[in-house]
Amino acid sequence: MQLILSKIQTPDQPLPLSRPRLLNIMHASLSACTSTVINGRAGTGKSTLASDFARRCGRKVAWFKVDASDSDLRVFFAYLIESVSRARPGFGQETLLPLLETATIEEMPVLAEAFIFELLESQGKVEPLLIVIDDLHLVYDAEWVVPFFRRLLPLLPAEAHMVITGRSMPPAPLWRMRSKQMLCVIEEATLGFTEAEAKRLFESEGLSEAHALAALKHGRGRAEVIERVARILRESGRAVAEGFIATERRARKQRVRHLHGHSF
Amino acid sequence: MMQPPGQQNSSRPGLTGPLKPKPVQPAFFLRTKLLPPRPAPALLSRPRLTERLVANLAHPVTLVTANAGSGKTTLVADFVRTHSKQFVWYQLDHTDADPSVFLGYVTHGIKQSVPGFGEVMLSYLEQSADELAQSPERAVDVLLNEVLERVDQQLILVLDDYHHLGTDTRVHTVVDRLLSYLPDVMHVIIISRDVPPLALARLRTQASLAIIDRNELLFTDEETRELFRSVFDLELTPEQLTEYRARTHGWITALQLVRQVAQRQALAQGAGEDGANAPNLLDILRQSEREIFDYFAEEVFADESPEIQQLLLRISLLDRLEIDACSRLYPDTRCGSNLPALVRRNVFITVASDGRGEEYRLHPLFQGFLRRRLRSELGRAGMAAEHARCADYFLEHGAWEQAMTHLLSAEDFERAASVIADKGRAWIASGALTSLVTFAEALPENLVEAHPRVLIYRAEVARLRGEFDAAYSLFRRAAALLQAQEDGEGEAEALHSLATIARRRGDYEQAFSYLDRAVELSDEGSVVRIKCGNTRGLCLMATGQLTAAELEFRAALQSAEERNDEHYIRIIAHNLGLPAMIRGDFGEALRWLRRMIREHASGPPMPQEAWALANMARCYLFRGEMETCEQHLERALERCQLFNLIQHRAEVFQTYGDLYRERGEVARAKEFYERAARAYDDAGIDLSLCELLEEQAVLNLQIGDVTGARALIERLIAARSHDGNEMGQHGARLTRGRILLAQGDAEAARADLEPAVAYFRAHGLYYYEVQGCMALAACDLGAAREGDMLEHLRRALDLAARYDYEYWLQREVARNPRLFAMPEAAELLPPDVREHLVETPNLSTASPASATATQAAPLYAASQAASMEAAPVGKAVVDLTVNMLGPVEIYRDPSKPFAADAWTTKRARDILCFIASRRHRRASKDTIIDIFWGESDLEVVEKNFHPTVSHIRKALNSNQPLKQNFLLYRDGDYLINPEFSYRIDTEEFDRLVSEGEAARRAREFERCINSYEQAIAIYRGEFMQGSYDEWVEEQRSYYREQYLRMLEALAAVAQKTEDWSRSLKLAQQILHDDPFREDIHCLIMRAHAALGNRVAVKDQYETLSRVLRKELGVEPASETQKTYKELVK
Q1: Residues 452..491 of B with a Cβ closer than 8 Å to A: which?
Q2: How many Cβ atoms from other residues are within 10 Å of residue B116's Cβ?
Q3: Burial profile A212-232: b = 16 or more Cβ within 10 angstroms, e = fewer
Q4: Phi and psi angles of residue B815, each rounded to the nearest 5 degrees, phi first
Q5: Quick one: DSSP state of residue B885?
Q6: Looking at residue B228, what DSSP letter applies?
Q7: What is the dihedral of CA B844, B850, B851, B853, to 10 degrees?
């Protein structure tokens, strides 16, 4: 199988201003939990946070951007193993790959254990590792996902922390693990921009507080919107962005009016 | 319900990539073919013929047909030189028998006169090889659209030596199409030795065709006399003249012979000889034309020096004579000076040039003569050697097509085969399919076996032409031969092509097996491998294996990116968006689809962009980004128009319908569904294969017409039950489930929905599934199954979060707040959406319709009943509205007015009004010129006429996404295109007037009054307010008279029925237009009196007296005075 290499490279495009509040949560999770789930709808800043943290955590990083076509167990693991093996050469090639050939649903726990075993045994095991699985929600419906992760997450060693991002809540059995202190969950509400963060972002771009508050209100805290407004403001001057906010607001109002128009 | 492009992908298979990166100019483009001939040094002008040519310019085509040496080319060349500002001279030969080549030259020819022309057409020729090979007439439409858009001065297209094309070529189809729809700015002159196999009969019956044949080209007595006197400078006796003319019938070549002989005799006499050994001219003229010519040629030839003789003999082998090529091929012959000298001496050779290049052309009869002579001189072997030399030269200079003719003449088949094997790809890319096949078929069979790649190209041509069976067997033979030769890459190429044919036939298993083998044979990262990946992806998509398709596309894309092959990158990236779109991940789909579009590149538009833009528009619609959706639709439609993509246009119309439906603009949605239905019909597509019926059903559901919705969906389900398209069937079931729910039959709805949802879930079709889940939740609510309802809602909301169906969710919540009335259900919503729920009034007090419906019903149907808007529903589609009664109003869509400066000149607008106001909406060109340019010089008219017509056409398309030609030119008349529908207020007015009249005669007064009232309402003011041309005044007084007459009649009725206030109002309307009508003033006074308003009676009388005194200097008539006195008594 030909692997798409861009899927297992840590994104290297420039990131917007870091958000220490969230990075601190991530750092805390790194030391207290075995894994972190970042959960929020489109445009709430999940991947941005994950890749910012990946750059700053001081660990080697194995990145895997999941696509819908990775719902096949073998495809998924081919990428996951390749991704980890870039940080830990030789990882899984001899033990995990042959196991995958014949793996069935019933064997998912076994596979998870083997995965952990490899993590503990593979070369460079002393060097701490961060495994990021980005957009896992795209394969939540695959039947192997729950049995595999349910077994895997509690077993993860401290030096191999896993970050999972997804747009919807992971399937229930995984979700319940958060109460056991192994899993740290950052939810959409937490991802949302606070007033202080918006002001800081706008200040760093040389923009006013008033703009920051307007953008915050307009974006309802959504990272993507707020960062976009800040970018447009910076690039094209104030008038354009004000116009932009006004049109978007109008469009939203109109949209809502349409919606109501249908019903009443 | 809006749906991702599911089943229609069987008819819209994604981009397959027969497209090649090609140079904008065809590989074999020879500029010299477009050079106009220079006038002969001595020429007799022939007014009798040129006048016919001039007169015929008003018609689309002139055919000049006669055998060789009749002076056809000379006549037409002289005519276009002296009479036309713009013309294209296209010198045809046998290599022009391909539609692609032919249209390429025509386009380039026009481009030489009209800068910027051809951007669209050349892009089309580059990108649409298979469509062009299969239906070349579509390409003509693209060309014609561009002519209408760009050319606004008369342009003559001359097709010289049309007979070279032969009888068996699709170019005739192309020319037929061209002539049938030729725009008024263009005129075509066909020069041919025989009558071409075109559909001329139709043109002849329409009097659109003029033929100048041999009889007319023959010189008359008078012309013969003139020819000898002023051109040949020979004085003949009247008897001699009559004799020669009778003997030669006026055949110009024979007349030239007469001159030649006469000059020799004169020379001989001058030298003191008696001329006795000169041949008897009359004896010669008694022979056949060929013999006459040969004798003549012999004489001319013998007169030349040996050096010139050699030159003439050698160059006769060449089809095209360029100084450069001749001097390299025959370095000893001093062509550079000799050829021009021969032209000056008029030795059967002419020159064509345009200042940048030139080409010499031997008289065809003379060329035949020389070739025969050369053959007898050199013998068979010598000829072959000479041809071989020519072939070498052309090969060396990269002109393989020219080299081929010589290689075949030299019978050097081995080299010919290797040239084809080597250059076949470029050959196909240039569109010269017919030439390629002709050459390939001239090769002996054993050589083809030795060069199996020749077979690949022959097969490729067959495939492009849609001859799949032939292509299939050729590819198979090629693959077998290539395998024997161990040419792995060639074999992989053939196998890939076999796979594409198998895919087209729907035999995917076969396709996969060819692809497997092709992949084995090809190198990783090679172009064949990339193509295989793309084709496999498309096959996988067609068999519903979306995930596997994505993997293939991703891998192929990565290879294409490594090769930096922009062309394949764009195609594959686009295809990668399709599975995402079908799955319902529109954000992801957009990410890929948009890579097909070059946002900022300055290159020409491409047909493939229409696919991508339309798909993107659908994604934006699903995401609720209406404005972006509309922008993309406009751009998609523009490309559909440019490139004449009929099926695509239907899909774009359908999406427009969906867009308007989502916005709640019901009337426009209906209108566009109507357009889509027509367009599908034009494209010959069965409605059960597309989603139109489904979308229309959803619209009906939305406006509360549940019965209509049900009828449509049942029709679709019945049609789809046969074709084995599971996704389509389940999609339709989902819609039916929603309709059943609206009809109150929740259990029947559940029976449709449950299996559908299970199918969608199993196949990862999330957008379908989310809708199904929501509908099932509604069923559950009706049946008080709260646990199930929560489960369905949970799944729906989960999917909405995963695939970003935020717009959809907001809409659903707004439509069906009852679903979320339970706190547990509301809890599931994201907080910002929950806020909406709070804003929404409680449904329990909602629309009255819900109270009467059954318990489950209100959720889907009844709440929408109230949303029916005030806009008139079901009104016929009007493509163009022209209102002239009052200030002129012209629009296609009231919400999209033409640009302020659209008309360029007021005259353009007035001409349209003139034509629209005429009977049958038609006016002859002569009438238009008389009325609008009556006083001007012919030259001014010529300069302004066509641009003005073009202003009209452009104005009617200004600001409109859909470009249409509303103004046609047929048989000397301009007419409003009857294919479209119109609202013209004068016609409406006339119709109402005559209906009123008829009703009055039938004594149906109520109907009469009704018609009159409607007509009066249409009359917004005088005809074309603000225009004062003579023709306007005539119309104006006519309509004013009618208007006043109806007002009077109505006022009289009002008076009779003692409806005084109404009669007052009508009378005042009359006075507004005609203040001197004393009878009307009397009527008003009577009305006032009847209403008991004596002061007003007095005022009215005084106003009348004042007006009459001031304007006319008279007192009111005695009758009026009497009435007044009676009323104020």
Answers
A1: none
A2: 7
A3: bebbbebbebbbebbbbbbeb
A4: -75, -35
A5: B
A6: I
A7: -140
| 8 Å CB contact of B550 and A4 | no
So what's the pLDDT on residue B7? 36
ipTM for the complex shown: 0.87
Asked if A169 reaches chain B (Cβ–Cβ under 8 Å), the answer is yes
**CA of A123 vs chain B CAs: smallest distance (Å):** 30
Selecting from A6, A71, A189 the residue whose C-beta is nearest the C-beta of B547 gives A71
Which of B841, B832, B753 minimizes the C-alpha distance to B795?
B753
Residue recorded with tokens 């692609």: B100
State the burial class of residue A109 (Cβ atoms within 10 Å of its Cβ: 0-12, 13-18, 19+). Answer: middle
Structure tokens at B632: 């993309």
β-pairing, B967-970 with B349-353?
A: unpaired
The verdict on a CB contact (< 8 Å) between B555 and A188 is no
When CB atoms are compared, the residue of A2, A68, A262 closest to B547 is A68
Per CB-CB distance under 8 Å, the chain A contacts of B837 are none
Q: Which tokens hold the place of A7?
A: 């899927």
Amino acid identity at B904: T
What 8-state DSSP symbol labels residue B40?
A: P
Q: How many helices (H) and strands (E) does chain B have?
A: 55, 13
Nearest to A70 by CA among A134, A10, A162: A134
Contacts of B827 (CB under 8 A, 6+ apart): none
CA torsion sign for A59, A62, A68, A73 is negative
Amino acid present at B3: Q
- Residues from chain A contacting residue B662 (CB–CB below 8 Å): 258
Phi, psi of B801 (to 5 degrees): -70, -45
Confirm if B814 and B836 have CB atoms less than 8 A apart: yes
- Closest Cα of chain B to A254: distance in Å? 10
Task: Report residues of chain B scoring pLDDT below 70.
Answer: 1-28, 40-42, 205-208, 266-279, 599-602, 836, 838-876
* Among B56, B54, B60, B150, residue whose Cα is nearest residue B946: B150
Chain A neighbors of B558, CB-CB under 8 A: 2, 4-6
pLDDT at site B383: 92
Give the tokens for residue B189.
Answer: 């002159």
Smallest Cα distance from A40 to chain B, Å = 8
Q: Give the three-class secondary structure for A62.
A: strand
Q: Which segments within chain A are labelled E, that is strand?
A: 35-39, 60-65, 129-134, 160-166, 183-186
State which amino acid sits at residue B1078.
Answer: E
Question: pLDDT tens digit string along A231-243?
Answer: 888 777 656 656 6
A140 touches chain B (CB under 8 A): yes
Distance between CA A83 and CA A81 in Å, rounded? 5
3-state SS record for B550-567: HHHHHHHHHHHHHHCCHH
pLDDT, one tens digit for every residue, chain A (264 residues)? 788 989 999 988 888 888 999 999 999 999 888 899 999 999 899 999 999 999 999 899 999 999 999 999 999 999 999 999 988 888 888 888 888 888 888 989 999 999 998 888 876 667 889 999 999 999 999 999 999 998 998 888 888 999 999 998 888 777 777 766 778 899 999 999 999 999 998 888 888 888 888 888 888 888 988 888 888 887 776 566 566 666 666 665 555 444 333 322
Identify the pLDDT of residue B872: 41
Query: Considering CB atoms only, which of B551, B799, B832 is closest to A69?
Result: B551
